């Protein structure tokens, strides 16, 4: 068998609608001879998630800002947080790049604690949104919380405030800075 004939046999063929035989392209190979992976099939978009994305940067609870009510903050791998309080501010990007975006929220409970929430959203049906949240207690009662607070206070010149805790949780990414602007100018560093 000639090498030309062997190559012809190794290429798959299919018969399209007109009875003609169509030759499929040979499979791609990497330098080491392994077959290259085909492009993944397009992901299925969830209609509900796509609606949520279309409203960006507005969030579902935008109308709740400043109103005292019961809130439920979902957390992955931990119990959800349920409390009475006020949504102080929220932020989301104007567009969802590659079908994904973050939603940031800051709440104040009726008892003066602060709750920070970050949700990573996706429009894809087979992917789950991820949720994390943290509570800042200005007057911790548990021994562990008091030890952590004391350690922080010893290593820093000023005691940790809810604003310090927010920066520890959200960082200084552009979306976090937008959230801080909505909360007021206390997050800016003043230089004289």
Number of strands: 7
User: What's the mean pLDDT score?
Assistant: 80
How far is the first residue's CA from the last residue's CA? 85 Å
Helix fraction? 25-40%
- Structural class assignment: alpha+beta
Per DSSP, the total helix count is 5
Any overview of this molecule?
- This protein has 192 residues and is an alpha+beta fold.
- Helix content is 25%, strand content 24%.
- It has one domain.
- The chain contains five helices and seven strands.
- It has a five-stranded antiparallel beta sheet, with helices on one face. A two-stranded antiparallel sheet has the order 1-2.
- A hairpin with a 7-residue loop joins strand 1 and strand 2.
Q: Can you describe this structure in just a few lines?
A:
The chain is an alpha+beta fold. The chain is built from five helices and seven strands; from the N terminus they run αββαβββββααα. The protein has one domain (47-183).
